[in-house]
Amino acid sequence: MPLQIRRGRCTSFLRENLLTMLTVIGVVAGTLLGWGLRATGYEWSRREVMYFQYPGELFLRMLKCLIVPLLVSSIVSAIGSLDLSLSGKNVFPENIAQATIATYRTKLIYDKNDTKAIKGHLDTYKIEGDYQSGSNVLGLVCFSIVLGITLGKMGEKSRPLQNFFHCLSEAMMIITGWVIWISPLGVFFLVTAKIMEIESFQELIGRLGLYFMTVLLGLFLHGFGTLSILFILTTKKLPCRYIAKMGQVMATAFGTASSSATMPITIGCCDDMGLDPRITRFVIPIGATINMDGTALYEAVAAIFIAQLRKVEMSFGKIVAVSVTATAASIGAAGIPQAGLVTMVMVLDTVNLPAEDVSIILAVDWLLDRFRTTINVVCDALGAIIVTSLSQGDIEKSRAVQNDRELAPAHELTELEKGDH
Question: Which of 67, 75, 80 is nearest to 142 (CA)?
């Protein structure tokens, strides 16, 4: 009997964690293959590296194509079903259809003919704006929140549209379940290609070694120190049990370096942990958009590191200014690989450092990007658990109201609706 129980437990464990183990194996195997191919001494061309990266890019595109329909349907469905009785121009897109394929970008242009323009001083540059390829996630989130609140206020009249978004959200999660089974293979090729692209291991380990370890130490202390303390204080539970169930999420985040691409998998993981779908479908998309704590920490450390290289004195006031700017800039960072480099320009300008100095940390940014993305998505999931814990009373009350509506005769529904208002 004990032997049968052990076999049953082993079978159950493998069934529940097979995908996670395969994804971790994909990361490790990709790293080993990348090192092995570099060790051959052959100089791999960009085209050859592209061939290795191609399957991984297909996987990444599959995940990205789910972002817009899943984000909009999840938020609208979550907010629209609630009992309502209980950073910039991208927030308000001028064209909601355009927001699905393009995002607004402010450009600082140095004009040689402008006598007031000083090269390296961003405050003297000309300000222009244009649109670049990529979904305006922040604008879509704001629109979805407003639409969800509107549907919730409309009551029974909005039921058909609520059912549509609910069905769309469920359909996207089913498709996500199919796509994530490709993640071990996709992550394997993405990691292999990145290892092959490294130009100099000497520079990676030498000059940038201490900077690299400082960022990793900061991310580790934040992820398993600060976040864990906040989690324990709010939920009165240890986070270890929940973090252990996020292996698939962390492995995918590390492989793709994109919190937006990992969002469907994060939502699925939270659903598997038994969290209320209304909370996960609201917290996770917003977290993947504006909650970039790992990126904020990385940008602050990077700015201080570059300042030290340039022999720029950093007073306490400047360090505080860098930290605040990094936090604000990270909110506007897109959830795509190496998006933090774009907002780093704003942080460097805080201590009057030239934007070109971003190139100093490029050698290790691709790897640090994966670690900070992992921290970002873990924080999103832990945040959803915290919100669920704090909202437990409202969740039970909302379920009781929903049960009353389902059991009430048709003529009593009108009275229930009036009572909500």
Answer: 75
